[in-house]
Amino acid sequence: MPRRRLIYVPFWATYVFLYTPIVVLVVMSFNAGKSPYVFEGVSLKWYGELAGDDTVLHGLVNTLIVAAGSTVLSTVLGTLLAVGMARHSRSRLLDALGLLPAVLPDLVLAIGLLVFYAAVKMTLGLHSVILAHTVFGLAFVAAVVRTRLVHADTSLEEASRDLGASPLTTFVRITLPTLAPGIAAGALLAFTLSLDEFVIAFFTAAPTEPTLPIVIYSMVRFGVTPEINALATILLAVSFTVIIVAQRMTRLTESLS
Amino acid sequence: MSRTRYTRHLPAAVVAAGLALALAACGGSSTSADGTAPSAAADQLNPNADLSKQSLTMSIWPDYSPKDLPQQVQQKLGFPLKVALHDTNEMAMAKLTANADSGVDVAFVSGQYAQALNEQGLLEPLHPELIPNLANLYPEAAQLSFDKGNKFSVPYTWGTTGICYRSDLVKTPPTSWNDLLTPAPELKGKVTMMTTERWLALPALKVMGASINTTDDKQLGQAKEMLVKAKDAGMLYDDTTFGAKLDKGEAALVEAWDGWCPTTNPKIKFVVPKEGSDLWSDTMVIMKTSKNKEAAHAFINYILDPAVHSWVAENILYKVPNKAAMDLFAKNNKAMLDSNAPLQMTPAELLKGESIVDLGEASTKYTRLATEISANQ
Amino acid sequence: MTTEHDIAPPGAAARPTTGRAPRRPRALGGAAARLAFLGPGIGYLIVLLIVPLALIVGYTVFRRGRFGGVVYEATTENFTRLFDPLYFDIVVSSVRTATLTTLIALLIGYPTAYVIAGLPRKWKTIALVAIVLPFWTNFLIRVYAWVILLSGPGLVNETLTGAGLIDEPLQLLYNQGTIVTGLLYSYLPLMVLPLYAAIERLDPQLREASANLGARPVRTFWSVTLPLTLPGVLTGCVFVFVPCLGNFVIPEILGGGRSIMVGNLIRDQFLKARDWPFGSTLALAVIAVLVLLLFVQAWAARINGGAEDRRA
């Protein structure tokens, strides 16, 4: 069946295409030499350099602050919006508004915010990036939570209401626990997106407070290769661990419930 | 029925509320911005101000100042120094001009950009009495055409643009900008030019014998033709990593700022083409919005100390317009100076180069030229 | 404030409704609750999304300030400039590059998603995670990896010379093809995921029925599989096209200053030329292209709606 086999060609090509650069990055991060092309022996030298690089560390701390701040804001606003959209509105305009940040090119949002901050004369800093990242963060949280809401059983909420519980009580004691996995997934998504976001941060960060992607952009432009490779490898290792842990945890919660 | 009413009206109500909020924010802060409106008058500064109550933020290129400068400043001047980095002049300008207060006190930008900032009323006129170390500068340092007399900027480094090349990879050493624009065939794919618009135009304008500050459309059109031809012949563009590429042999002949030409590698040489070149200067300026102007002056004065300023020549191989610092450097690093031709250029030689000045409205012509070159396929 | 649902019997939610979605019960309280839930999010999006977008649209009719910002004098010159061949050609060639990337992504992504959907459960999970994983390391570093791979002494040239296919290293970097490679590399997963979701939902019985009726696999694909997965195809195309069109980082890193896209042009108007009105006009052009695209998507989805309804 040659045709059956043929379909595996693009399949494998996709993975080779996706992973060749990553393998090169990881291997070259352990290179003892400075050349990005010739492997001259195993060394952890570049990891040492990276650990002592204050600019990278400063960027990392800033990125974590931004990601944490925007995740908290996005989760609160996004969850409320999702519940509101699923339970209190049928407006298609509202649906479109909720989707807009996800389909808008990041560059357009970035310059819009740059212009907006200038118009209201807001001083830039980490707060301006947090506010900016929350725009798309809340949209993604709302989308994820809504998927969960659509599939959720509403009879509990109604029962709670019928028994005389206030809307607030119903929301806190019934709706929120039901939505918890969706909220957690949405928060994780918002955090991840913020962590790696470059374009919007590039336009809205203060010059004194660059995030890690901004620092990396500068490193890429100045061609500090081996250190970049080490950084990429660490990021990959951390992400991989997070994915495995998240998977284990979902399996755990699934088996518990 | 009522459902329709709510869903129609609620968004409208929120839109109105949001707009009100946004407008309130606009109105509120524009009043507070009145105090920082552009004006040419210098602030009254207190020469005896308690610097320990101030703190300073500077914006500078990466690796362009000592890594331990914040510690030095804290120790010697008694106030904390925060370092912000910008990759290019454009990035610095974007951040310094986009918002009312960028949070930056002292910025390091090239001369023509300092001039543009000043024309916009964003710079604090310098108080020379607070910078006694200005006396260390060469007299030529006050003759830079973007700021004669150092009214709003103090030069940090200066130099020129030329051709940096691998003597082992080129058959005949370059002497003219034409050697860059129409390179020998064996160099194909190994020649780079800079993309920052004024330096992109420089080689072509110099070949034509035109001023590098020309705003004449005919001359710029001619320059465009030459640059497009160069691109068609395989020119590559690089503003930041040409030194490393030469070092690795990935490039053989590049347009370069003298200090970025890695002549520490004995195979790499630097030449100022016979048609002449520019005189560029990276300067220190104090932002009008700074609330730490006394500290800013003390900081600039500290940089101009010979022991501090000579760090630049020793570590990044840039010439500094500071006579005392260059003398100190020459005394301590004789071998390095002897082996490095660009470092030996005298102020008089440098002044033969043409300063790039801000062209105001006409600067868009250079932006367009740069776009035309990169869009050409 | 009462709505019809406040007086509706509690069991109303269970009643079948005529709408497409499961009926949304709206029994958590009246207007106050609605405002409490919807207000913060909508307010936030209006201030930090709609107002900024409105500013962009508004700025397109004003003159640039000499040092950035705008001068509030009405003008049409920004639109005149937009149709200046220099800029218009860049917009057109960017659309072309984004389209090309999207098509290649579709051609590679469809069979990939198809194979993944047919894998046993355990392998399916692994294959999907492997598609997403590259997203979890920094985007800029991944793009930069291609500079290392494709440069003169890089891996690709070494392999080709080693295999005796070429004598001299090829100039693989800094051209239109490099940019497409970088874009494809960055956004291919965004094509595979929605395609996978669409193919996964497909009822295998449909294909079997088609085969049993004597249709050849190719015909089954064209007349059954593809139409049924069209929504996924359209979503994937939008997901890939949008970030490609507005990109400025990939052309910068992989284009080596020899090619630019509309994203670079917009970025430069804001960071170099400090011409906010023209930058806004270019951004508006990008938005216009995307709105057009979304209309095409909605239209194609509606034409395909018949198949959707039959499934639902």
TrEMBL record, chain A:
InterPro entries the record matches: Bact_Polyamine_Transport (IPR051789), MetI-like (IPR000515), MetI-like_sf (IPR035906)
Major subcellular location class: membrane
Bilayer topology annotation: Multi-pass membrane protein
Pfam families: BPD_transp_1
UniProt keyword annotation of Repressor present: no
Family stated for the protein in its record: Belongs to the binding-protein-dependent transport system permease family. CysTW subfamily.
GO biological process per UniProt: transmembrane transport
Name of the protein this chain belongs to: Putrescine/spermidine ABC transporter permease
This protein's UniProt keywords: Cell membrane, Membrane, Transmembrane, Transmembrane helix, Transport
All residue ranges annotated as the ABC transmembrane type-1 domain in the record: 60-246
UniProt xrefs under CDD domains: TM_PBP2 (cd06261)
From TrEMBL, chain B:
Subcellular location: Periplasm
Any GO MF annotation of the entry: polyamine binding
InterPro entries membership: SBP, Sperm_putr-bd
Keywords: Periplasm, Signal, Transport
Signal peptide residue numbers: 1-24
Chief localisation class: periplasm
GO-annotated biological processes: polyamine transport
SUPFAM superfamilies membership: Periplasmic binding protein-like II
An annotated GO cellular component: periplasmic space
Pfam families assigned: SBP_bac_8
Descriptive protein name: Spermidine/putrescine ABC transporter substrate-binding protein
From TrEMBL, chain C:
Listed transmembrane segments: 42-62, 98-119, 126-149, 179-199, 220-242, 278-300
Primary localisation category: membrane
GO CC annotation: plasma membrane
GO biological process per UniProt: transmembrane transport
Domain ABC transmembrane type-1, residue spans: 91-299
Annotated keywords: Cell membrane, Membrane, Transmembrane, Transmembrane helix, Transport
CDD domains in the record: TM_PBP2
Subcellular location per the Swiss-Prot or TrEMBL entry: Cell membrane
Family of this protein: Belongs to the binding-protein-dependent transport system permease family. CysTW subfamily.
PANTHER family with a match to the protein in the record: INNER MEMBRANE ABC TRANSPORTER PERMEASE PROTEIN YDCU-RELATED, INNER MEMBRANE ABC TRANSPORTER PERMEASE PROTEIN YDCU-RELATED-RELATED
Protein known as: Spermidine/putrescine ABC transporter permease
